[in-house]
Amino acid sequence: MSRKTYLIVSLVLVALIGCGKDEEEEIIEEETNEYINSEAESNRYSRSESAEQNLLINGGLEEWNFFLPGSPSDWSIPHNEYVQRNKSIVYEGNFSAKMQSEQTGETARIDQRISVVPNHKLRIRFHYYVEQWKSKGARTYCYFRTAAAEAYNISTDELEDFYGKDTYYIIRGGGYGLTYFPHALNVWQTFDETIEVPPTANYFVFGINSYHGTTIYVDDCWVIDVTDTSTTGITPVWI
């Protein structure tokens, strides 16, 4: 008999036996309250998790295409030879993405396009590990778009006017006010910034670039709509 069934049967028996709270009734009442409280706590955590739904698919980089070893599922990889599935340097789970360009002028890049809501706020969070750093190193390289096609990228000038230069570096740099990632070697570092979606944008392309001579590992990528919909009355669009 499950705990829930036991509690229900016990309460019915107590009601049939008669009135008056004896020791057995007190024990049953305590267990009932404990069960109700535990259910409420479970629901609270479920609501918390759903409130931070990752807009990225396969954000943990756990799933990879079998025939394309440099291509994590649901991500776009312009140069597969520069991105590899890695299992030795991992922040969480079983795999991370190793990004390493071996050709001058070539870039190791991963990106993914998602739907967003104009004027909502996005929290961008991921972890990266720098094994080798050279020259330009690595940075975010993200786009906002008015439509799904690349031709509808919102221009750099428009974004810089909307954000200001320091904020712009959140989506095209190393974080607020930083041109490239901070690059302490051989330690996991966290990128965690929040930015507003421009009023004309319907799509966001989350991307990371690693330039020639730099080797980084990327893992545990999140883009979360953190707008308080209880005051706006608008529901975020998940994909």
Brief characterization of the structure:
By secondary structure, the protein is α+β, with helices and mostly antiparallel strands. It has helices spanning 3-17, 23-51, 156-163, 165-168, 229-232, and strands at 83-86, 96-100, 107-115, 121-132, 138-140, 143-145, 188-196, 203-211, 215-225.
Structure description:
The protein is α+β, with helices and mostly antiparallel strands and 239 residues long. The chain folds into two domains: 3-51; 80-232, Jelly Rolls, CATH 2.60.120.260. 25% of the residues lie in helices and 27% in strands. It has five helices and nine strands. The chain has helices spanning 3-17, 23-51, 156-163, 165-168, 229-232; strands spanning 83-86, 96-100, 107-115, 121-132, 138-140, 143-145, 188-196, 203-211, 215-225. It has a five-stranded antiparallel β-sheet, with no helix packed on it. Helix 1 runs antiparallel to helix 2 (23-51). The longest helix is centred in the first third of the chain and has 29 residues, at 23-51. The chain starts with a helix and ends in a 7-residue tail after the last helix.
How would you summarize the topology of this molecule?
Elements: H1 3-17, H2 23-51, E1 83-86, E2 96-100, E3 107-115, E4 121-132, E5 138-140, E6 143-145, H3 156-163, H4 165-168, E7 188-196, E8 203-211, E9 215-225, H5 229-232
Antiparallel strand pairs: 1-2, 2-9, 3-8, 4-7, 4-9, 5-8, 6-8
